Amino acid sequence: AQSVTQLDSQVPVFEEAPVELRCNYSSSVSVYLFWYVQYPNQGLQLLLKYLSGSTLVESINGFEAEFNKSQTSFHLRKPSVHISDTAEYFCAVGRNNAGNMLTFGGGTRLMVKP
Amino acid sequence: DTEVTQTPKHLVMGMTNKKSLKCEQHMGHRAMYWYKQKAKKPPELMFVYSYEKLSINESVPSRFSPECPNSSLLNLHLHALQPEDSALYLCASSQGASGGVYNEQFFGPGTRLTVL
After folding, report:
1. Given a cut of 80, is residue B2 above it in pLDDT?
2. How many Cβ pairs within 8 Å bridge chains A and B?
3. Shortest CB distance from A51 goes to which of B31, B102, B108?
4. What is d(CA A60, CA B26) in angstroms, rounded to the nearest whole number?
5. CA-nearest residue of chain A to B107?
6. A95 touches chain B (CB under 8 A)
7. Are the Cβ atoms of A49 and B40 closer than 8 angstroms?
8. Which residues are registered as beta bridge partners of A113?
9. What separation in angstroms does the CA of B43 have from each of A95, A104, B31, B80, B104?
10. Cα B54–B65–B93 angle (5° rounding)?
11. What are B78-114's pLDDT values in tens digits?
12. Measured between alpha carbons, how far is A25 from A13 in angstroms, rounded to an integer?
């Protein structure tokens, strides 16, 4: 069985400050890791993903996440946030068994203040 | 075309109404999914279709009835819903849904459903 834990339900931060959103997972098989972002009243958008290869993955808008197998973590970081980054962020683990299912964490609300 | 589209964007219905949600993709994907998302919660999987056949039903009440008329289209028929069914309904698609390799899911923008 798999589970995903996002340790912080809300993260308030000032504009231009760095931020880290934490994600830990448990799985007995190979994992595929994702961060999705959901802006208010919108659907899910893929922010970045780890499928294989380099453990550090980056998005086009300055976010990065590092897959750490020993710590079973996939934390999301950004060195300098903008007001427009205010959104709900979901970490998810994909399974390659029948059903191709995603298991989501509970979400972290990032609130960027001016 | 790398989009998953969903219609309508918003839907308000009474408990005795019958309505349908529609999802479409033209990426040649052979797996499609319905999720339900309540406010401030993560999406919850409802159904998975693989090659137009229902492969997973996560114990969803029968008032929700999925249909996959062809590989590009996925419907969710709604009948006799309850106010607690009000939520954002998300559709997703992926290349496949079988074992061996994980296939990334692409999400649509969702239909916001309100049941009065």
Report:
1. no
2. 68
3. B102
4. 25
5. A44
6. yes
7. no
8. A14
9. 16, 7, 17, 22, 16
10. 50
11. 999 999 999 999 999 998 776 666 778 899 999 999 9
12. 24
**Residue A42 confidence (pLDDT):** 86
Query: B66 and chain A: CB distance < 8 Å anywhere?
Result: no
Residue A112: how many CA atoms within 13 Å on its side-chain side?
A: 19
Tokens coding A28: 């007995």
Mutate: best of A5, A44, A111, partner B, most B CBs <10 A = A44
Q: Any chain A CB within 8 A of the CB of B48?
A: yes
- In this predicted structure, what is the pLDDT of residue B77? 97
Cβ neighbours of residue A1 under 8 Å, at least 6 residues apart?
A26, A28
Residue B92 near residue B107 (C-beta atoms within 8 A): yes
Ranges under pLDDT 50 in chain A: none
- Residue B1: band (very low, low, confident or very high) from pLDDT cuts 50, 70, 90: low
Distance from CA of B102 to the nearest CA of A (A): 4
Q: Looking at residue B104, what DSSP letter applies?
A: -
pLDDT of residue B100: 64
Is the pLDDT at B3 greater than 70? The verdict is yes
